[in-house]
Amino acid sequence: METPAAATTELKRALRTPSLVVFGLAYMAPLELLAIFGVISENSLGASAGAYLLATFAMLLTAASYGKMARAYPVSGSAYTYARRAIGPKVGFLSGWAILLDYMFLPLVVWLIGANYLHEAVPALPLWACIVLFIVITSVLNILGVKVADRANLILMALLFLIIIFFVILAAGQIAGPEGHGFSLDPFYNDGTNFGAISAAAAIAAYSFLGFDAVTTLTEETHEPRKRIPRAVMLVAALGGVIFVGLAYFAQLVHPEPFFDNPDTAAVDIVAQIGGPLFGAIFISGVIIGEFASGLTCQWGATRLLYAMGRDNVLPRRFFGQLSERWQTPVFNTVLTGAVGLIGIVMSVETSTSFINFGAFIGFAMVNLSVIYYWSKHRGERLSVFGYVVAPALGALVAVFLMTQLDGAALLVGAIWLVIGVGVLARITRGFKVDPPEMEA
């Protein structure tokens, strides 16, 4: 590891559109849909595909806003950068602080879920050892550089999509077989459901999309970012929607009844029904692979957001704003996020997932509002009112609605985190009298 004094301050531009799309899909971990399928099915009253279709529409609104902001401000930082540039430095700081809660703890959640599956597959390996194994391998790959992590992602995602294809093939065979119920549009809307139920389920289904925005944190590691980043963000959201809707459709047709004895294990029941014990083992392997790929990209995105805030001196620059001269990666940030992941040893999946979405939805809302502010400052450029005002306003409203669907514990933790952020902002702005340090673009 290089010392801060020797560190460089520029990231390598080594990524193109396919790598960005793979990164975004890996971040979302599409196979995780089956882990929450039972909850979506019950809340939508058997219309899980309809719920995911509605969630896809909502997320595409926000994805379009991310694309517009990435084109206008092609630098790392995601919601933090966009709100900072379009609305103002203080709002930008609070946006970055809010989404930092999501970015910092999402790798922990992913590693913990993956470790639980690995422990189930290999009971002789203690859970804490599984967590450490996930953290060490992903941290080393991220330290070695974007190209190494990118190649690992491509391999892992290829294996994951093979499992998804096998699931669809086996499910289709079950549906069309003598014991199946045949193909229909019931998973989108049926006599037993209603729009209110589908909307409530869509609020939960939207959690599956968390991470499509992380593509924007790689702006400074991308060739021609003004063109590639907006395209990649929309592709990730759209492809993620196609995968989620497709998986939900086939899973719902395999099990048309909306309710399960235990919704948390619905995927295990469905996988056993269509493929037996052999495919059940393959499925668990796929979840482990998917969680590993997702953990790799979640940590990757978190370190880039920390780097952007450190480079601004919003966070201490000597630690957060430095890159290794040898690998040109934010090594200190990578080690820090790995250390945070160790907290998973003493946490449950339920506890750790209860508060990560708060920051994400605030980030979504602020990016949509940033587009509207950008339009107000550049009206002379004849920007589309629908694209820069109406669509982002709808996206912001959807994000706020989804945030209100979080449980009380998540809202409490999120509120406390924001209060701490206001205190930090007051300190670095001398009681809000000056702006936070400006971005060094």
Sequence-ordered SSE layout with sheet pairings:
Layout: H1 17-28, H2 37-44, H3 48-72, H4 79-86, H5 89-121, H6 127-144, H7 146-176, H8 195-205, H9 225-254, H10 266-311, H11 317-320, H12 331-341, H13 349-353, H14 356-377, H15 385-404, H16 408-428
Outline the structure in words:
Pfam families: AA_permease. The chain crosses the membrane at residues 20-40, 52-70, 91-113, 125-146, 153-175, 195-212, 232-250, 270-289, 331-349, 355-376, 383-403, 409-429. This is Putrescine importer PuuP. It is found in: Membrane. It is a multi-pass membrane protein. With 441 residues, the chain is mainly alpha-helical. The chain has 16 helices and no strands. The chain has one domain (4-75, 98-347): Up-down Bundle (Amino acid/polyamine transporter I), CATH 1.20.1740. The model is unreliable at 1-9 (pLDDT under 50). The protein has helices at 17-28, 37-44, 48-72, 79-86, 89-121, 127-144, 146-176, 195-205, 225-254, 266-311, 317-320, 331-341, 349-353, 356-377, 385-404, 408-428.
